[in-house]
Amino acid sequence: MNAAQITTRPAPDSFFALRDVHAYYGESYIVQGITLEVKKGEVLALLGRNGAGKTSTLRAIARTDDPAVTHGEIWLEGQAVHPMKSWQASQAGIQLVPEDRRIIAGMTVEENLILAQVAPNKGWELEQIYDHFPRLAERRQQEGVTLSGGEQQMLAVARALAREVKLLLLDEPYEGLAPVIVREIEHIVHGIKELGITTIIVEQNAVAALRLADRAVILDSGELVFTGSAQELLEDESLRYRYLAI
Ligand SMILES: Nc1ncnc2c1ncn2[C@@H]1O[C@H](COP(=O)(O)OP(=O)(O)O)[C@@H](O)[C@H]1O
Ligand SMILES: [Mg+2]
C-alpha cells in the first residue's frame, strides 16, 4: 500500500507530527499505530525497553526502506513526509544519526563531513562544525573509522549537522561509551538544543535523555503507553520501573 494515497486529512498545525503510523519488516508488525507531535525547537525523548520499536520508529520517520510504512502520515512543517524516500526526507531536513553511526571507511573525518555537505541543502560549514566539535578539528585528517567510539559518535552527529537539519533523530547517542565520554557528548547535544534544533532522542540511558528532553513518550511493543513532560516521567517512579526498568 502506498501511504501517500491514503492521505485525506489536511496537514496538522504542529511543526512535526506522526498520525497513526504503522510499519512492518516483511510480515513482522512492529510500529503499531503511533501518533505524536513535536513542537519547533523541542526535544522529545522516545523511550522504552529493548525491542520496543524505538529504532524502527526513527527509521520509519527517516523513510528508510525498512521497516515499510503501510499506514499513517508523517508531517514536517506542513509537508507530507510519508510519501518520501529516505534521500528526499533527508533533503527535507530530517537527519537520522543511526545507532551504528555508519562512518565511511577509507575516508578522513573531513572527507566524511564534506561528503555530507555535497548533497543538496547544505547545513553547517566546516568551521562551525569544528567550533562545536573541537575533537574532530584535531582529528580532521584521521580516517573516520579509526576514531574512538565517542569521537565516531561526534562525527555521526556532526555529519547530520552538515546537512540542513529541521528534525534531528538521535538513536542511542550514549550507547557503549564510557561515562566521561557520555558527559562530553551530552554537553555537545545540550549545545545543539540551545541552538533550537528540534530533536527526537532515543536512549537506553533514560535519565540522561530526560535531562535533555522537554517531553517524553514511552513505547512498548510498538505502541505509545505514555506521553507527558520529561519532568513528569522523572518523578513517576512506578511508570519508569514498569516500562523502563529504572
Ligand atoms: N530488520 C528487521 N527485520 C525484522 N525484525 C526486526 C528488524 N529490526 C528490528 N526488528 C524487530 O523489531 C522489533 C523492534 O526493534 P527495534 O525498533 O530495533 O527496537 P528498539 O530500538 O526499541 O530496541 C524487535 O522485535 C526486533 O527484533
Ligand atoms: Mg534501537
UniProtKB/TrEMBL annotation:
The keyword Cytoplasm does not apply. InterPro entries: AAA+_ATPase, ABC_transporter-like_ATP-bd, ABC_transporter-like_CS, BCAA_Transport_ATP-bd_LivF, P-loop_NTPase. Residues 16-246 form the ABC transporter domain. Transmembrane segments: none annotated. Gene3D superfamilies: P-loop containing nucleotide triphosphate hydrolases (3.40.50.300). Keywords: Amino-acid transport, ATP-binding, Nucleotide-binding, Transport. One of its GO terms (molecular function) is ATP binding. PANTHER family: HIGH-AFFINITY BRANCHED-CHAIN AMINO ACID TRANSPORT ATP-BINDING PROTEIN LIVF. This is ABC transporter ATP-binding protein.
